[in-house]
Amino acid sequence: MSLGQQDRARRFEETVMVHLDAAYNLARWLARNEHDAEDVVQEAMLRALRFIDGFHGGNARAWLLAIVRNTYFSWLEKNRAQKDQVTMDENTLYAPGDDAALLEDSVDRLLQEQDSRRLVARALDQLPPEFREAIVLRELEDLSYREIAQVAGIPIGTVMSRLARGRKLLLVILRKLSQEP
Amino acid sequence: MDCSRILDYVHGFVDRELDPVVASEIEKHLEGCAGCRQVYARQSMLQAAVRRHAPYYAAPASLAGRIRANALGTGAREMTAPGDSRRQWLRLGAAVAATAVMTWAITLQVERATKDDRVVEELIAGHARAVLTNHLVDVASSDQHTVKPWLSSRLDFSPPVADLAGAGFPLVGGRLDYLAGRPVGALVFRHRQHVINLFVWPDANAKTAAPAQASSKQGYNVWHWVQAGMTFWAISDLSAADVRAFSETYAGIK
User: Fold this and answer.
1) Where are the domains of chain B?
2) Which residue of A58, B1, B64, B69 is most buried, as measured by CB atoms within 10 A?
3) Closest in B53, B59, B100 to A21, CB measured
4) What is the ipTM of this complex?
């Protein structure tokens, strides 16, 4: 292996591989199954290696996560025919009466009960992908609005509104799940 | 500031993304307005519930190896001009490159006893198992006075337990694990959204005078030290500097 390749391999370890868990976590939440998440991460890592010379410092994790999410969405485009993507859109999830319902005390009780708090993961899985992505990056990766904007390729204002709407929808779904028999 | 503005700002407030002037205006408003306090409390509870109950999926152990083989194979082909007569050499080169990088990752710190290596592998397996199966703790408590007796009553020793919330590493709880051929205590801490496992067991042969050791493998960082007849191994996917800071704080307290 030449010196250049060794150098590149080392850079790959130091910049990219150390964030493998973060890459997988995001891919797993987006794809919602292990098999597809592994495919997406493998492809994203190849892209990261290809683009590594273009990375000049900054937040390497956010840089890699941007590659992961772009890889996921182009992978989705290619596989949409086979994939039975049952993601509901915002309007299907959100009924006109929900706004008032969210202000009831029952929502607070919901969040205080251990059993219903455990439904949070299932509820998050049912969110439309753009909201799921924003919440995973914010709450699980602890990224700032600026970093989320960088990863998702959207303005900071959009990050804010996605988080606000995503959290509202999350409460709506949570309420529905907890009412299931 | 009036109540309708609070609804606009509550997410930025919960996420600590507002500028300090606006944030302090909101704080002032919340003090005097029960309705807005409830809105804020609800969002905080939702955030806490997501952070606590939504699993963080760590990469499966086999994935890193496949990526290295795959990525560096591709890398080698890209970086060398392809020619028919050289194809076999390229393939060999790719294999060598992949092996070399794996070896590099493993021998990052050159001098290390093979026994410690085995422990590190077991640590990684223990850490990954706990994170993957979402079975981090047997006893969930941020109170050291709950975790310590729980572990002591199930082990043949009493592990030192401290909560480092003040230093940014809150205690999540404790767990029993099996490592280096014996039952050990595992203390679980969080730092941002990352998990730190601190494995503790008594080791009569361990030299207290031995310097603390850092190692890094499969993207995990490990810090090892010996103190008062106990051997400590901290492991996390946090940066080496964070794992070290955690360990040094812990060693300083107990």
Assistant:
1) 1-56, 61-109
2) B64
3) B59
4) 0.88
